[in-house]
Structures are given as C-alpha cells and as structure tokens.
Amino acid sequence: MSNPTKQHYSIPLQYRKMENLHIVFWLFKDIAWCLGFKILGITMIVPTLSIALLISWRTRKMMSELCHNIAIAVWISANSYWMISEFLGFDEKIVWGEYTYKHLALIPFGIGVLVLAFYYLIWRPKHKEENETM
Description:
The protein is built from five helices and two strands, in the order H-H-H-H-E-E-H. The chain is mainly alpha-helical and 134 residues long. It has a two-stranded antiparallel ribbon.
C-alpha cells in the first residue's frame, strides 16, 4: 500500500537509459585501464565524461542531483587523468617533494568532496523544507 505523504522522485526514461549507457562506457574505460588497452581506455573518456556533464546539466534545477552529478563528473576527470598518467608513463615522475603527477588527480577528487561538502553542510541544512531527492 502506498503512502500518499511520501515524496517520489522519478526520472524520465530517456534520462535513465542515458545514465545506464554512461555506466557501460565507464566500465569499458576502467576495464581497458586494468587490461592496459591504452587506445580504448583513452577513447572511452570522451563518451563517459560527456554523458556525466550532460547529466549534470539536465539535473541543474535539483541541487541534490546537480551536486552529486558534478562530483561524479570530477571523479571521472580525476580517474581519467590518473589513467592517462599511467598509460603515458609520467605517473611516478616527481612534481614536488614526494608528490608525483599521479597525485595531481587529488585536485579534481578534492573538488568533488568540496561540492558534496557544500551540499551536505551548507545548502541542505538551509533548505530542509524543500523537496529534494536526498
């Protein structure tokens, strides 16, 4: 029996199909990375990141979705940079002190954390009354 007071979040089927295809591209990118298939791995960055950015754009009117989707997009960016650094052999080269080029992936990872921290620590507490997905 359904509860009429509960809010439901629904996503158009077209968007859901795009999100599911996004997961397929992401898996192919990471499988290619794992197996050392450089051309496939680097090629899969384009559709994976493009769809992540498109999903972010399409959810821009729902702050919870937007923040989480931006975090996913910067995660894919960090992950892709890390993969490229390994494929092209500069991942272990020193940038500064003990930090290597691979560590530069922490920048977009950190941006993702900051976006989610903004949502959970600042935006969400100030907008408790608004219906959101989270």
